[in-house]
Amino acid sequence: IKILAIETSCDETAASVVQNGNKVLSNVVISQIESHKRFGGVVPEVASRHHVELITIVIEEAMQEANLKPEDLDAVAVTYGPGLIGALLVGLNAAKAYAFAHDLPLIPVHHIAGHIYANQLERKLQFPLVALIVSGGHTELIKMNEHLDFTVLGETRDDAVGEAYDKVARVLGLPYPGGPEIDRLAKEGEDTYKFPRAYLDKDSYDFSFSGLKSAVINTLHNERQKNNPINEKDVSRSFQESVIDVLTEKTLDAIISEDVKDLIVAGGVAANSGLRGRFETLSEKHGFNLYIPALKYCTDNAAMIGAVAYELYLKKHFADLDLNGQNYIDIEEFSF
Ligand code: ATP
Ligand code: MG
Ligand code: FE
């Protein structure tokens, strides 16, 4: 089964052909980071326009790289949410047109399910599992008991982790995206600032990062007003330690109380070296398996959408051509 998958939920224009949900025949991703850099974040309208310019090229390239003709395909899959609505609609319309023109079934895919299934491109998912999705737009702790069965254990109540990274980086005067920059500086710094850790209610798996973000920004503001020197490496390390403590402790709690052996970490922030290191230590200490997909499958891509789509194909879960994009879709409703 060969599926052409399309992903345009944020600032990556991506298309991929995936065979049987795990063999990547092509994986084309055009990132718009350079265009959004000067604004210090993703500008939705700019993103949509880029998607319009790039989508046809990306799809053609994915088909060429896979060395396939439209008639070799079995279905077209597309991310229909969550994401920026204008951005989603570009991919959605391209997918619908392709499916209609070549008489192929259309498969609607939830973006976060894609991040979890990115693992399937490297090894088969084993259930039950817990997945921590950390990116610029999402911070979610999800449990799966079997294929296409999602339970949300917790999620952020305000900022996503990546968003907090990018905002703190901006106040430190670092370029966008800030995550890699802070990660780099943190390696040379110490946790001297001791920023707060937001654990919220004791048995909640929800996250909150806006308090931490404000604490960092206020500290920088106060120190600057007093003309005190700012140790950027220590600020980065202190911020990152707070993030890692909360993310790993809540995730570990979930693994233990849900009695799960497999942990998946995905999304752009899964690239963070401090977070990876801490999870590796914890997995050895507590005996769970840690799976983090290769970076190209951690950040937004279409191959992960193709991986989910295969499971939906097996269940004949297809959409009509009136399928609409949605900026928010509860992943529990994407359980089949
Ligand atoms: P979405 O939230 O829809 O998945 P996105 O484009 O915002 O989309 P990703 O592309 O998955 O998310 O990830 C980008 C985010 O990851 C940015 O916020 C970036 O700062 C962060 N990031 C990337 N590398 C690192 C790193 N080494 N440490 C921390 N954060 C990182
Ligand atoms: Mg991105
Ligand atoms: Fe994403």
Automatic annotation (TrEMBL):
Protein name per Swiss-Prot or TrEMBL: tRNA N6-adenosine threonylcarbamoyltransferase
The enzyme's E.C. designation: 2.3.1.234
Pfam families to which the protein is assigned, alphabetical: TsaD (PF00814)
PANTHER family, alphabetized: TRNA N6-ADENOSINE THREONYLCARBAMOYLTRANSFERASE (PTHR11735), TRNA N6-ADENOSINE THREONYLCARBAMOYLTRANSFERASE, MITOCHONDRIAL (PTHR11735:SF6)
Organism: Phocicoccus schoeneichii
Gene coding for it: tsaD
A GO MF label: calcium ion binding
Keywords per UniProt: Acyltransferase, Cytoplasm, Iron, Metal-binding, Transferase, tRNA processing
Family: Belongs to the KAE1 / TsaD family.
Lineage per the UniProt record: Bacteria, Bacillati, Bacillota, Bacilli, Bacillales
Binding residues for Fe cation: H111, H115, D300
